[in-house]
Design brief:
alpha+beta
Length: about 100
Amino acid sequence: MAFFDPPHDPLPPGFPLAAVDASGRPIVEGSRVRIPVMPHWLIHDLPAEDVAHLRSVEGQVLPVLEIDGYGYLWFGEHGPWFSLMPTEVVLESESV
């Protein structure tokens, strides 16, 4: 299920991000990936409650809900909750 429309304007240099994990293995929607740590860029200016909620998934294996037009991986149980760059995760299995 696509939650995000493709970008309408040309993408900035370096985008879309390559859909490969921290070890260079390919990731597709539905892949199960481990999130070793929440990156600073995501949590640095969030309220403490939101940071704690995001940190609660560190070390867990989650399915990739969607890969958006920029190449970011989206996660969430019932819809998009947060995104990470593909190189910030580790592939555990290709799909559910």
